């Protein structure tokens, strides 16, 4: 009877240990949200010239990915990041310059922080004059 109790306790302990290891092993995995994606961005400068950038990222949203790559800088506002500098050029607000975000050639309907990165989409930042 005592051997059976020892075996039962040992089996329970082994099962608990196995479950703990499984849980901690799962904590290090991203569950798909950490998958690398490729993001392509075309920057259109004031003179009309363009420059293409391609990055691999695990970010879900465009803004944080481009900030971490140091392509953009800006100020946090009530609607998220207001982009002021792209590819080293800072807008001149006195001339009503601003960076327009596009997705597949169309003006984005979301801010850069809330624009999801989707494989195959073409993103653009276009220096625009006039509000």
From TrEMBL:
It holds the Pfam family DUF4430. Keywords: Signal. Residues 1-25 form the signal peptide. InterPro entries: Transcobalamin-like_C (IPR027954). Residues 73-122 form the Transcobalamin-like C-terminal domain. This is DUF4430 domain-containing protein. It comes from Acutalibacter muris.
